[in-house]
Amino acid sequence: MSALLETLVNRPYAHGFYTAVETDAMPKGLSEDVIRAISVRKSEPEFMLDWRLKAYRHWLTMTEPEWATVEHPPIDYQDIVYYSAPKANTDRPKSLDEVDPELLRTYDRLGVPLRERELLAGVAVDAVFDSVSVATTFKEKLSRLGIIFCSFSEAVQQHPDLVRRYLGSVVPYTDNFFATLNSAVFSDGSFCYIPPGVRCPVELSTYFRINARDTGQFERTLIIADKGAYVSYLEGCTAPMRDENQLHAAVVELVALEGAQIRYATVQNWYPGDREGRGGIYNFVTKRGDCREANSKISWTQVETGSAITWKYPSVVLRGDNSVGEFYSVALTNNHQQADTGTKMTHLGRNTRSTILSKGIAAGHGRNAYRGLVKVANSAIGARNYTQCDSLLLGDQCAAHTFPYIEVKHPSAKVEHEASTSRIGEDQLFYCMQRGLSSEDAVSMIVNGFCREVFKELPMEFAVEAQKLLGVSLEGSVG
Amino acid sequence: MNRLQRESLDIAPMLEIRDLHVEVDDKPILRGIDLAIGAGEVHAIMGPNGSGKSTLAQVLAGRETFRVTAGEVKYRGRDLLAMAPEERAREGVFLAFQYPVEIPGVSNVYLLRSAFNAIRKHRHEPELDAVDFLARVRERLGAMGMDQVLLNRGVNEGFSGGEKKRNEILQMALLEPRLAILDETDSGLDIDALKVVADGVNSMRNPERAIVLVTHYQRLLNYIVPDAVHVLVDGRIAKSGGPGLALELERHGYGGMESGPAAPTSMKETLKETS
Predict the structure, then answer these.
(1) How far is A429 from chain B (nearest CA, A)?
(2) What is the ipTM of this complex?
(3) Is a pLDDT exceeding 50 seen at residue B31?
(4) Strand pairing report for B27-37 and B15-24
């Protein structure tokens, strides 16, 4: 068993990466001048620049957090380029023939459509192509319903009042080291507003994920569901994304008003580094939803298989009475990947409910930590939480940790926590192989079974992709 | 083709075990097994607890926790011990487990279809899609007296002992192995479940298939009449005979069996005794 796992674990990462290309970038380093320059390039109104500068000045007083169970060499924040414009077509690969065949093989296995493969791999394509016209039609359909869905930059220009009202209202610029850095320098991202009573008829961003390629390392997303509105949002992509930036510090803010519901699903598969853990993305993300008014609901579902380090706690503030927060997570770490991820459920309103379901899979030398806070304020009469954290270990070099924090200030609260750790059994593998399955397929099947309760929460097409992704991730790295 | 015809044509048996020695943690478990099983035959391997019956079954299926220190096993003329477990399975070796394993979250029907298609693919036969496969499974389910609900439950998850064993037989019926090895499939079954399992096995008997029944008790052999019975004691075959040997064992127990030098068990002699 251990010999088998060792063989599987030590396979090279199959996805590969494309070489760096020239970019229209600012000089390295961070200063007020750089921030002013970013704001000017984006033709931002005064309030945005003020906000960025306040964030920057606050950031200077902060220190990098050290409490997460992750290890990395110190980050030199003056050695980072904080703004790069989309790459010129002349610098891109001319066709898929010039792209790493391993990357193409992965796209093929994941069933990524041909046109999307070109975009994901950064191939130079004409400005007008099929997907764009699809996207345009799609946008028109949404605008008839009054739904605003556009890039953050566009929202700042077209809908400054909405941006001004909600930006930083969930994650303030003083929130934490990485969120504050993001507030100062964020380059772009997505903006979405669903008007009262409107149910968004499509999963947002399915058609748009390809457009996210150049949003860069400091991405900012803001989604507002007005009274009684509903939206389901998909972030990310199962295909591995090319990216030259090592540090990613994104911020996502969700606002749900009375009776509104937001479902936010993420699949993250960024470059995890090589077998020794060199290279790879540091993914330090702040994601938070605010159930601002009564009877609102926010669900986070995430499948995390990429990045060298993942540091991420999609959270919900349950402010409105009877509001509901949910967190469903699958996090896979392999080779030298590290993940410290979980959630925070802050119960403020009466009869607020939250559910946490976390599935951590550690293989190779991977380190996987669940860290979760359930906080019930003394105003949260009748609050309830149910938490389940399961860890699955492959091999004997990996580690799984669970750090639950529970703070309860009202005696009527009911908080439950269940945790389990198991290992893929030699007997389970042998059973599957005796039925004719390869060891890879057996591992993939067992891991998928372990994650099933979370996959059920994903939108259908994403769930299918996520299953394939685990299969491919395990093939390229575990089994 | 019957045994005599085969003998006269001098066709190699389906499974041929020669002087097989197996250790676990440096402790010898099998100490020189010789056994030959031809297509169309049903052999029972009996013996007291700890005699090595289950070890033999698992070594044939390719379990790595056992170390083969000497001997050879030929399966349809090929070196079985050199084949990976999944290759053996795809080539038609099936083990019904004594303790079927639970795999939470993986539906029973999904595992079944994956296994079925892995074998079809190996045989260059078209794979079946979910709909066609389900139709095929339902056919067999009825015959096994199994509830359809079990198909969508996790593999063996929360199954009763009897359900787990019947599930193994269902898998066998679907995968249509050439060599089926049933490891104590009768243990823990009530008489009704035993009959269902026996009917399942009997319906699988045909001239192209060999079946090995590993069992502690004679009871199963009332329902599945074997062509030959072998008694394993201390890692050696102490005695071989026809179906009558099982009844003799029931009367006298394993106590009278010697654990001395291996009794003659080459196929010719086995056949002489059974005919």
Answers:
(1) 9
(2) 0.89
(3) yes
(4) antiparallel
